[in-house]
Amino acid sequence: MTVALENTTTTTIHGDRVSLLRVLGPAHVWALGVGIVLVGEFTGWNFSADKGGALAALIVCWVVGLLYTSVAMIDSEVTSTVAAAGGQYAQAKHIVGPLMAFNVALFLVFAYTMLEVSDAILLGDTIVAKAGVEGLTHNSFIAATIVVLAWLNYRGVLMTLNVNFVITAIAYVSIVVLFFSVSPWTQGAVLKLNELVTPGNALPYGWIGVIAAFQFGIWYYLGIEGTTQAAEEVRSPARSLPYGTMAGMITLLIAAAMTWYVCASLMPWEYLGITYYPLWDAGKLTGSPLLENLLFIATLLAALASANGCINDAARAWFSLGRDRYLPSWFSAVHPKYRTPYRSILFLLPIALAFAFIADLNQAITFSILSGVLQYTFMSINIMMFRKKWPLGSIRRGYTHPFHPLPAIVLFSLCVVTFFAIFLGFGSQLIAMVAFYFLISLWFHFYRYKFVRRGDQFTMPWPKPQGY
Q: What are the GO cellular component annotations (predicted)?
């Protein structure tokens, strides 16, 4: 039958199966990717200075930027070809197999949920620090942030990402304003980089410190791959996903470079490596109340944009598991009016709240990074299998990334280095998380997989892979 939905085109619904709406364009993809990641410029990346010094933070900014450029290139090709909700989960399902797909979906859900938790903690702590009221805690601000953003996601993806576009743009502009306000072309006027980063303290722990800094260097760009979660709601995946993702990556590389330059030129690495508010502190150190307040507001907006996008992405990964019966199909329900995966959004809400109240910012960031790097490792293997099974010319691709297989090799190599860096700082958490994914894989293989309708989960009209 045909029903008219508010603010949408008329849509056909077959039986009780309601699909997600295709209403997004490249700007929304950009807003989703950059919105999730930009908070990493406002906090998180600077902990890499604690691991290896200010120069190490710059080195990993560019080296990890290479890692994420490889992620963006690979994602743009595979997702524009497998345009389905769930992003990397849908890719794994079609290219590798069910067990890998199940794990990849969990990587996504855990990475985005813990990133959402980190954002909420940051927002609450920032407000408490600004208020300076004795006895005021961040709990009420954390709860309000997560609940209000869940409600916004419940009400519709177009409204959610329109909001993300606006607040992400404002937060990004604040970095540009700060950069040009401190006369970056005139060292010594405001900035003191040559005094703060000297040959004697540039790499206080040597090159092992650079390796250790990879752990938090990931935070510069963590989440840009979230653009793929909107693949089923994009009007033209072959155009919007590559353009939005690559434009987002370029945007973030510029923001990361400007952020490091200003912060490292205003704060000694010992302080830069421990503060939770590097850009807000930079605004304070300029002596301008206007810049201080601008960066305070921008820190809040960046945290809101990131948490907003994380709720969107985690819910769609969970929804995809339910739709394919990897989890109970109850989670695959789509709201008849708002056309959102509302049950998945509501289910993940108390989980995010629980973690937000029991974890601190460092722990939440680390758990998000761990799941993210596991997912990136899969992507390097996935693209190799994709090109081998369906060579160029065998199926229609929305975008073909250049230089294959170099990006896959670079991505895998840098993931290995990052795992080693995480082991140096959080070895027990790394082992615990790998053990968790191993046990949950056994549960899926021996219990849950029998409920999967194997013929229904493959939705792409592709020929049989080579060597089948």
A: membrane
Instruction: Using pLDDT thresholds of 50, 70 and 90, give the confidence band for residue 13.
Output: very low
Provide the pLDDT confidence category of residue 85 given band limits of 50, 70 and 90: low
Model confidence over 108-135: pLDDT tens digits? 999 999 999 999 999 999 999 999 888 8
In this prediction, residue 223 has a pLDDT band, given cuts at 50, 70 and 90, of confident
**Whose structure tokens read 């401190």?**
182
How far apart CA 232 and CA 11 sit, in angstroms, is 15
Amino acid at 396: R
Protein fold of 2-451: Amino acid/polyamine transporter I (1.20.1740)
Better-predicted residue by pLDDT, 209 or 426: 209
Q: Decide if pLDDT at 14 tops 80.
A: no
In angstroms, the CA 208 to CA 205 distance is 7
Average pLDDT, the chain: 88
Domain coordinates in residue numbering, the chain: 2-451
pLDDT digits (tens, 9 = 90+) for 371-404: 999 999 999 999 999 999 999 989 988 889 889 9
3-state SS record for the chain: CEECCCCCCCEECECCECCCCCCECHHHHHHHHHHHHCHHHHCCCCHHHHHHCHHHHHHHHHHHHHHHHHHHHHHHHHHHHCCCCCCHHHHHHHHCCHHHHHHHHHHHHHHHHHHHHHHHHHHHHHHHHHHCCCCCCCHHHHHHHHHHHHHHHHHCHHHHHHHHHHHHHHHHHHHHHHHHHCCCCCCCCCCCHHHHCCCCCCCCCCHHHHHHHHHHHHHHCCCHHHHHHHHHHECCHHHHHHHHHHHHHHHHHHHHHHHHHHHHCCCCHHHHCCCCCHHHHHHHHCCCHHHHHHHHHHHHHHHHHHHHHHHHHHHHHHHHHHHCCCCCHHHHCCCCCCCCCHHHHHHHHHHHHHHHHHCCHHHHHHHHHHHHHHHHHHHHHHHHHHHHHCCECCECCCCCCCCCCHHHHHHHHHHHHHHHHHHHHHHHHHHHHHHHHHHHHHHHHHCHHHHCCCCCCCCCCCCCCCCC
Residues 158 and 22: beta-carbon distance below 8 Å: no
Q: What is the pTM of this model?
A: 0.88
